[in-house]
Task: inverse folding
């Protein structure tokens, strides 16, 4: 049952070349941080293109078609446009907080991405407190939105940021409780160990391994993470028809690009988290037939990981363009009166399952 | 992993950052800016915990203070009309008196804490894995004399009661309509 494992060729090479272990440790950390940033920033344009195409096809349109083959160059043109725009703060805005807000909200997804195991040896930090770290870091996203909305000196921005702050704080509870369920059944808060606890066939993934509860937990994770991401149907924060764009109404140029980037990297982070916690992470989907399994194990883990993440991202995108947006009070009712009690019940049932069968 | 010198330099950088952000917290004209600087100060403290190999305490520090308490403070400031916009007027004599009081507090603390040599510890002296997630969770639930099971259960009960109370309050307001 061995996967093709990529060891540490680059890390070992640097450790051999540089005699001081401290310096090579520092260089290796810098390389992994740069790699994470490159992957995260590189995927964002692809995701924006993907979102446009999926949105267009759901609405029976073609989407971007003219620039490049099927509009592939459209995102690059958009990024160039955003980067060359003039950045200015509106009159009466708190300049310091206005420029700080996008930076803060960009911090959270990058920090969370360092915990994700992409392959057996592809992980920036293997902390024993991986899940609590991700929950803690998620708070910075809320902070960025709150500050950005206030510093814009615009009542629509402030309303949008207050709405999204309330929404994210509420749904964070469900988000954390579902992750707690995963920690409970897998017996570890370390994301690498959570992945390893699902090794075996496809039936050993947490979504299937616990009879009905796993699937319910996955759906709950999906709902609460959609709300955490501020994506439709939970895009109360932006609600174009009501708030003209929410907390980033007054932002333009690079500052707006940073908010936009944070949104898409958050999408990657959350999808990776769903993949790691429920869909077996980088493990191949073995089905128990030996000849097929051997073939699948030849594929490196990070390709399986990327495939599952792309599947999750497309699920989020299809949901975004399919459902209608609920009202603010309906949204809060749903969280506090249905999702939270259901989550507590799920935790109790999960504990019973472990006590009886585990 | 690090030689002690690099850790020392890092320690001084982080403590300088904590002190600077703490000073900004009390001197910032705007309440919201103070709250932001307070967050940076809390994160600096979390870095200290990380340097002492207490990962879980560091994460809790970020989760409870930076992610929880300060966000609620900011929320309150945003909901209170115009509190964040008007600058706080700080009178000179009051600033002078509070500066004297806090400086004398720092002086007394330094004067007496530095005498106690048992406080001067470094990382290697802590037991291995003393503050890791596993050992901490086991100690929380242990029924031995070093365990905290009663306190833990009481706090978890309190949290559950709070959650259920909030759900009940939300439900009641709907009936009244």
Result:
């Amino acid at each position: 049952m061995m996967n093709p494992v990529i060891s540490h060729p680059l890390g070992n090479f640097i450790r051999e070349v540089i005699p001081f272990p401290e310096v090579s440790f520092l260089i290796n950390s810098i390389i992994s941080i740069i790699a994470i940033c490159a992957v995260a920033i590189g995927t964002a344009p692809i995701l924006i293109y993907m979102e446009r195409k999926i949105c267009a096809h759901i609405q029976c349109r073609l989407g971007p078609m003219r620039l490049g083959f099927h509009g592939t160059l459209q995102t690059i043109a958009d990024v160039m446009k955003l980067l060359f725009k003039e950045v200015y703060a509106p009159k009466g805005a708190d300049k310091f907080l206005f420029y700080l807000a996008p930076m803060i909200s960009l911090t959270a997804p990058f920090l969370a991405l360092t915990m994700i195991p992409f392959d057996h040896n592809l992980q920036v930090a293997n902390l024993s407190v991986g899940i609590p770290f991700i929950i803690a870091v998620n708070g910075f996203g809320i902070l960025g939105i709150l500050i950005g909305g206030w510093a814009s000196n615009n009542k629509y921005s402030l309303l949008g940021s207050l709405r999204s702050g309330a929404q994210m704080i509420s749904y964070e509870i469900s988000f954390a409780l579902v992750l707690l369920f995963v920690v409970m059944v897998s017996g570890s808060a370390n994301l690498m160990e959570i992945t390893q606890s699902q090794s075996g066939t496809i039936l050993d993934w947490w979504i299937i391994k616990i009879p009905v509860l796993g699937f319910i937990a996955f759906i709950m994770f999906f709902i609460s993470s959609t709300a955490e991401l501020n994506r439709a149907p939970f895009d109360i924060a932006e609600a174009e028809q009501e708030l003209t764009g929410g907390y980033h109404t007054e932002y333009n140029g690079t500052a707006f690009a940073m908010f936009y980037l944070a949104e898409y990297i958050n999408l990657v982070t959350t999808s990776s988290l769903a993949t790691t916690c429920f869909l077996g992470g980088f493990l191949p989907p073995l089905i128990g037939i030996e000849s097929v399994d051997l073939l699948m194990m030849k594929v490196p883990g990070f390709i399986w990981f990327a495939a599952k993440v792309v599947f999750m991202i497309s699920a989020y995108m299809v949901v975004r363009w399919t459902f209608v947006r609920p009202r603010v009070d309906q949204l809060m009712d749903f969280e506090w009166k249905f999702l939270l009690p259901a989550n507590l019940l799920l935790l109790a049932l999960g504990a019973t399952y472990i006590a009886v069968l585990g | 992993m690090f030689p002690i010198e690099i850790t020392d330099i890092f320690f001084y950088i982080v403590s300088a950052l904590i002190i600077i952000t703490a000073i900004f917290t009390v001197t910032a004209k705007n309440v919201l800016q103070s709250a932001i600087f307070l967050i940076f100060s809390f994160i600096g403290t979390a870095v200290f915990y990380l340097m002492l190999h207490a990962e879980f305490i560091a994460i809790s520090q970020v989760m409870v203070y930076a992610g929880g308490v300060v966000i609620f403070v900011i929320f309150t400031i945003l909901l209170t009309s115009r509190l964040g916009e008007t600058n706080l007027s700080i009178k000179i004599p009051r600033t002078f008196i509070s500066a004297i009081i806090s400086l004398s507090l720092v002086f007394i603390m330094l004067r007496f804490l530095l005498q106690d040599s048992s406080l001067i510890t470094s990382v290697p002296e802590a037991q291995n894995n003393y503050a890791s997630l596993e050992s901490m969770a086991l100690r929380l639930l242990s029924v031995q004399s070093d365990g905290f099971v009663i306190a833990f259960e009481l706090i978890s009960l309190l949290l559950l009661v709070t959650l259920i109370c909030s759900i009940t309050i939300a439900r009641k307001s709907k009936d009244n309509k």
Remarks:
- Chain A has one domain: 88-357.
- The first helix of chain A runs from residue 9 to 17.
- The CA atoms of residues 37 and 201 of chain A lie 33 Å apart.
